[in-house]
Specification:
It is a single chain. The N and C termini lie far apart (39 Å). The chain is globular. The strands form 2 sheets. The chain has an 8-stranded antiparallel β-barrel with strand order 1-5-4-3-2-6-7-8, surrounded by 4 helices. The protein has a single domain, classed as Hypothetical Protein Pfu-838710-001 (Beta Barrel). It is an alpha+beta fold.
């Protein structure tokens, strides 16, 4: 279990910010992530308290759930728990059987830089556009205040403005931009075991 300290901002000029990130740090990788978020059946909240995510990335499937610790000044702090699953379709079936339903799908293409101990992701999010996420992982809660200060300084060094900060969750933004519903289809031969319905 780790403490995730992060902030997110919208990007009006992604190329300029990436150029600055390349000056300050080192390019690590380009990745594509597909996240399926689950909530309890019947929960119509846009940001449900009981939710978790299954992420498919580079052939791996990882379940994540978070407990918010605090979110002052646009900097989010979460206690994060993750574990890998060997059969993503089996996990979808398990979630369905025990009363959870998918409610948001987030697809994100990222270019990742390392600046000091911070991970800097320049993201293109389907249905939403371009964002930056800056994250530091801490092993202990006592390290969080130092990480918050470090993030704020890096945010300024990258030339970002406070007006660009985005404190809403991606899952909230996606539901506004693309209000789809998902019905589970129990067919292990399907790569994507859901049918998508738009209002």
């Amino acid at each position: 279990m780790a403490f995730e300290v992060e902030l997110k901002a919208r990007l009006a000029d992604p190329a300029a910010i990436e150029s600055r990130a390349a000056e300050l740090g080192t390019f690590e990788k380009e990745i594509f992530k597909e996240d399926v978020y689950f909530r309890r059946n019947g929960d119509a909240s846009r940001v449900p308290a009981d939710r978790y995510r299954l992420r498919c990335e580079a052939g791996r499937a990882v379940v994540t759930f978070k407990s918010k610790v605090r979110q002052p000044d646009g900097i989010e702090v979460n206690r994060e728990t993750e574990f890998e699953v060997s059969d993503a379709h089996g996990f979808f079936a398990f979630a369905h059987r025990f009363g959870f339903e998918p409610f948001v799908v987030k697809r994100k293409k990222s270019r990742v830089y390392r600046i000091g101990r911070a991970s800097v992701e320049l993201n293109e999010v389907e249905h939403l556009g371009h964002f930056i996420e800056i994250e530091i992982l801490c092993d202990k809660e006592s390290e969080v205040p130092f990480a918050r200060t470090e993030l704020a300084r890096l945010f300024n060094r990258l030339g970002l403005s406070a007006e660009a900060l985005e404190q809403r969750y991606y899952i909230d933004l996606i539901q506004q931009a693309y209000p789809a519903r998902y019905k589970f289809v129990d067919d292990p031969t399907r790569e994507w075991p859901f049918e998508e319905e738009l209002p």
